[in-house]
Amino acid sequence: MHYKIYSKERTSHFIDVECFIDNLTGDKVELQLPAWRPGRYELQNFAKNIQTFEVFDESGEKLSARKIAKDRWEVLTHGAKSIVARYNYFAQIINAGSSYIDEHTFYVNPVNLCIYAEGKINESCTVELHLREKEKIAGINNISSSQEKGTHLLHFDDFYHLADSPFIVSPTLKHDFYKVGKVKFHLWFEGNFQPDFKRIKADFKKFTQEQINVFGEFPEKEYHFLTWILPVPYYHGVEHRSSTMQVLGPDSQNFEELYIDLLGLASHELFHTWNICKIRPIELLPYDFTKENYFQTCFVAEGVTTYYGDLMLSRSKVFDETQYLKELEACFKRHFDHADKASQSLVESSWDLWLDGYNPSIPDRKVSVYHKGAIAAQILDLHIRKVSSHTLSLDDVMKLMWEQFGKPFKGYTMEDYQLICEEIANEKLDWYFDVCIKGNESLFDLLNRYLQLLGLEVIRNEEGIISLSKTTN
Ligand SMILES: [Zn+2]
What we know:
Blueprint: E1 2-6, E2 14-21, E3 28-32, E4 50-57, E5 62-63, E6 65-69, E7 72-76, E8 83-90, E9 100-101, E10 106-108, H1 110-113, E11 116-117, E12 125-130, E13 136-138, E14 143-145, E15 151-156, H2 159-163, E16 167-170, E17 174-180, E18 183-191, H3 197-215, E19 222-229, E20 234-239, E21 243-249, H4 255-272, H5 298-315, H6 321-338, H7 346-351, H8 353-356, H9 371-387, H10 394-406, H11 414-425, H12 430-437, H13 444-451, E22 456-460, E23 466-470
Parallel strand pairs: 1-12, 18-19, 19-21
Antiparallel strand pairs: 1-2, 2-8, 3-7, 3-11, 4-5, 4-8, 6-7, 9-10, 10-16, 12-15, 13-16, 14-15, 17-18, 20-21, 22-23
Helix pairs in contact: 3-4, 4-5, 5-6, 5-9, 6-9, 9-13, 10-11
Zinc ion binds at residues 239, 268, 272, 302, 305.
């Protein structure tokens, strides 16, 4: 599949797409637009943003393209070997997972607006872009320039790769990079923001190295941090195979606060390069873009990642102790203030991400796989440290998950994760999985028993306000 992505009229916020599909056989083909995007486990029905959709054969004859599902078309090809689908996509919302176009900035998350032909999802594909003068492309590793001035070809291994490779085209992108070992980490900034690259590179290098130390290697040859700073308040990031898209703001905010947000988000998203992009729940491997991909283990994908995002910043000394405890306290507050009495377990709330995971809960129903998931990860980490006299930790669990599932790119089950935890802890952990993962009892007292190991205590005062303190004795 080959895509031309452009805009006839940028101020209209419509992106135009032409998708060329070759080597067809038979007299019909089905075309599918993804119904959701990796990183957010809910149906988003991107097809609602398509205004017009037409398909033509190689001689320019219009073909019948009839919808057979909300985002799937059946095209009668009458034996045509090549066809082109021409459609446009409304891209007016800025967030880390959407696509957006205006006169200045062209941001594409291909999973929103690239269709695939059934049977061709594993074939390599290319995207053709025509850049204006001074425009640059951020986020893509494999780009070749054509002889035609301003024309660039972006190369992808297959549709999954394309769907997981956002890019920004803009004349005002600010760029620098740092290296850890042989891996090049690109830093791209868009928006009203003057990055202090010296400081950013020093801090990013520290937490990147710390994360690589956990796993022993980085999964990709090159990586891109794409950061868009907006004039409005924002805090949103999405992980991808070899990049992350982060949207932060407001640009008028106190710089140090914005910088703490940037560090917290970037460390979290980088950890996903291992944990979810490669160490993938079996139900999500491969992704089925047509429907819900239910899975029980988002407490590993998001909970462990949330715990490690800040832990890596602390361990690499990018965050001092005060900042780290502030982040821990915020996570505890979010859970114990809102979800301590929830009826659901982490496993149930992971499953129900597809139902209401990203909306406010009705009272006492669901838990956050991020916050309760991070608390569960911390309890497990401290338990392993305790039973191994501090010779082992959750690091060893994640390293083994990488070796057994991430590197060979083999999906893991809930049972696989428990077995690996038990192998590292060298004991059965049914109690932990029953209480912390599959249960709905409050973790308040249990967490406090383990926090003693760190000389910390969560306190709920008479007004019910949660805080984290150092224990005095
Ligand atoms: Zn995440």
